[in-house]
Write a structure and sequence with these properties.
Elements (H helix, E strand, L loop, with lengths): L1 E3 L4 H12 L5 H9 L4 H4 L11 H9 L14 E5 L12 H4 L7 E6 L8 E5 L6 H16 L3 E4 L5 H12 L3 E5 L12 H10 L1 E4 L11 H11 L3 E4 L7 H11 L3 E4 L10 H8 L3 E2 L3 H8 L7 H13 L11 H10 L3 E2 L1 H8 L3 H13 L3 E4 L2 E4 L4
Parallel strand pairs: 4-5, 4-8, 5-6, 6-7, 8-9, 9-10
Antiparallel strand pairs: 1-2, 2-3, 3-7, 11-13, 12-13
Helix pairs in contact: 6-7, 7-8, 9-10, 12-13, 15-16
Length: 380
């Protein structure tokens, strides 16, 4: 069922109290939701409870223990609760709902309809290499352009690159959070969260007001993998949160893909471990799409479009219009190679400013660094 928050403070309070009360264990809450009960119905004087709930009803009715967090949703915020489906209007993600540890409720800000798309998770280290960032960006771009929902965790590094790649494509992306909907973490990704909510959605199993906590991230990772057909690990150390996500995906019967890295690559240990345990080796988005085609029978239209896209996708991705300074840099490069010092002098910018532009252009597939300096790979 879908319930819109921030319209009825009293009803919001009941939901938050129900989800957080310790007077009922998780199994009892699941039983109530499975039978179609909702917190407002539980307060009805003649409600048909499966057990004597007078004490809990009194607690829910008068509780002042929790202040309802001030919801400042980026868009309208919905609460999707696990339980009995209701003639097609239940938007709780079907892949997730079948898991024994599925969250009792999900808070969603943005386009809740994006949850009906086949989803692929892209995860990895918070301290990626340039090659890792580039692969995450291209993977996010091409999978979203092919019609998949790109799912990640809004973290620094690989997560952010995957979200941004999906956003550039015009497709949809979902950020699964380990905090309440009103607490963006890390805080520097507030703008990215806004963009994700505007073009896709933010999702959390935690009530508004919940702050980052070490124990929340493994729970978030299980929810993230449970939402998806497959998890793609771009770059990961060992041990790492990305491996927790991958292991959860395996337990949930999902596909796991990992990028191949050299034994000497500092961020490749986790991926190599996954490959040794049976993960699918992956180096292009097209290979992911082709491998998952057998799972897309429920999305007939997407199957044809995705396979057509994968067969025609180039290794590089089309990009948004470049800023004037970046265009000027590419013009200066021409078809030759130039050292960074001469380029900074010609552009009348600092070395730091030049390196920032070079990094962005490199991630976008326009330039590459060589022993002699920098050269253009392609021009807009």
């Amino acid at each position: 069922m879908s319930y819109v928050l921030a319209r009825n403070a009293a009803a919001d309070q009941l939901w938050f109290e129900f989800l957080t009360t310790k007077m009922l264990d998780r199994a009892s809450k699941r039983k109530l939701l499975a039978q179609g009960f909702t917190p407002p119905q539980l307060l009805e004087p003649h409600g048909t409870w499966p057990f004597d709930g007078a004490e809990l009803r009194a607690s829910l009715r008068v509780s002042k223990s929790r202040q309802v967090a001030s919801l400042k949703p980026l868009l309208s915020c919905h609460l999707l609760h696990w339980g009995r489906q209701s003639s097609g209007c239940d938007l709780y993600p079907p892949l997730l709902s079948g898991l024994s540890d599925a969250p009792l409720a999900l808070f969603v800000s943005g386009d809740i309809n994006c949850l009906s798309r086949p989803a692929i998770a892209i995860v990895g280290t918070r301290r990626p290499s340039r090659d890792g960032l580039k692969l995450a960006d291209q993977m996010g771009y091409q999978l979203a352009a092919a019609g998949f929902l790109v799912v990640s965790g809004l973290a620094r590094g690989i997560d952010a690159a995957a979200h941004r790649g999906a956003l550039r494509s015009g497709g949809q992306t979902l950020a699964v959070m380990a905090t309440g909907m009103d607490r963006i973490y890390p805080s520097e990704h507030y703008r990215l969260a806004e963009e994700v909510a505007a073009q896709g959605a933010l999702l959390s199993e935690f009530c508004p007001g919940v702050v980052p906590h070490r124990g929340h991230f493994p729970r978030r990772n299980r929810t993230l993998s449970g939402l998806c057909l497959a998890t793609v690990v771009i770059e990961a150390g060992h041990p790492s949160g990305s491996l927790i996500t991958a292991n959860a995906a395996v337990e949930q019967g999902r596909e796991v893909f990992a990028a191949p890295w050299s034994l000497f690559h500092r961020g490749g240990a986790g991926c190599l471990r996954l490959l040794s345990q049976g993960a699918q080796l992956i180096d292009t988005p097209a290979a992911v799409i082709e491998h998952l085609a057998v799972h897309l029978s429920g999305w007939a239209e997407l199957t044809a479009d995705a396979l057509d896209y994968s067969s025609n996708a180039s290794e590089t991705t089309p990009l948004a219009p470049l800023e004037p300074a970046k265009r000027q840099l590419l013009t200066l490069l021409g078809d030759g190679e130039h050292d960074l010092a001469s380029l900074a002098s010609a552009l009348q910018c600092s070395s730091r400013q030049l390196l920032a532009m070079v990094t962005q252009l490199e991630l976008q597939g326009y330039v590459e660094q060589t022993s002699a300096g920098l050269r253009a790979v392609r021009h807009p």
